[in-house]
Amino acid sequence: MEKFHIVRLGCPKNDADMDILRGILENKGYKYEENAENSDMIIIDTCGFIENSKKESIDTIFEYNSLKENNPALKIIPIGCMIERYYDEFREELNEADGLFGVITPQMIVDKIENNEFFYKHPFPIDTYKCEYRYIPETPYAYVKISDGCSRKCAFCSIPYFKGDPKSREIEDIKKEVEFLIKNGKKEIILVSQDNTLYGADLYGKQSLPKLLNELNKIDGDFWIRVMYLHPDFINDEIIDAIHNNDKILNYFDIPMQTGSNKMLKAMGRIKMRENLLEIVKKVRKVPSILRTSIIVGFPGETDEDFKELLDFVDKVEFDKLGAFIYSPEEGTPSYNFKNKVDEETKAERLDELMSLQKDISNINLKKFENQIIKCILEEENDGVYIARSWMDAPEIDGNVFFKSKKDLLKGSLIKIKINETFDYDMEGELVD
């Protein structure tokens, strides 16, 4: 029985893929090996989005390749986004790899391995998969990928150039996967893709995220669904209403607005300007909701005045959650050759100033929840301290809720916590029976 190990890098979309891949391999009789050193095959799912993620992927490949010193028969097989983006270069120069797969479906990876074909780059368009088998993660939540690819072509983003136009999975297939996960104890389902507002346009002739959400909301059970990655240019009233009106769908809006300067929005290739974004905020918050965004600082041409407009925008909106990133020039994207580059020191200073502002905003926003009872999901226990996550917080990127209890609580349970104290991003409370 061949033993395999999977190394997961990059975004939750990769996690979703690797849960499917592991499930298919195990169904075929392969055995998952937690200790990479004892495996026969290590599959490394790479990320090729920005420079730091590419460096991490390359470093990881060489790190695991060093295991061959004690296990010469070990196969190292990098796969995924970075391989797709630079396949020809890696095929020629990465002699350490025993296989290379670009962005292909988990089933195709298994088929190739079974046929002893270890090098393959899929031509456009990419494919999506049906979920016949999948690994059930130990976490209380699971990522479910509803489509792959993107046609938005924002000036800073390389994804459309190595993934191509979006391909959506059928609603029934997604629903079956979610039902399977709920039956096996998952309490949170997180829908992911490059842009969830695109979902279904290729299959059903129009944006179909509302239809998908309406169907998933019919599934029996005590669980919740979180929707990530909603492009601001294409979020619409129907999508907002579907999130607001379905009781199992969390009122959590992840809308990456990137900047608050109209000049920068135009340079980034965005359609909706600052005033349009503020209108979206108003519609989202007509029902109590959590609003998360992503911001890029240091985009080419960003002046001090543009940055001040960004700070003013963030201060005005008072985002509940905000992630910020320093602009990374990516070859092949329109912005790669833009002039008026911002120097690295200025980028770092702007990032610090932005996150200092957001810390203050978050602190004030969280104080509103003191003495309130909030529904949470129990994540783990550490030396008598339980770590939970509220419905307002996505895993790995948002905050936590800490509490102590003498009860023996089951990981993954949905619980209620009375919030006693709040901090910059986290909260502390007590269990409510």
TrEMBL record:
Pfam families: Radical_SAM, TRAM_2, UPF0004. PROSITE patterns: MTTASE_N, MTTASE_RADICAL, RADICAL_SAM. CDD domains: Radical_SAM. Its EC number is 2.8.4.4. Residues 136-365 form the Radical SAM core domain. It is found in: Cytoplasm. One of its GO terms (cellular component) is cytosol. This is Ribosomal protein uS12 methylthiotransferase RimO. The gene is rimO.
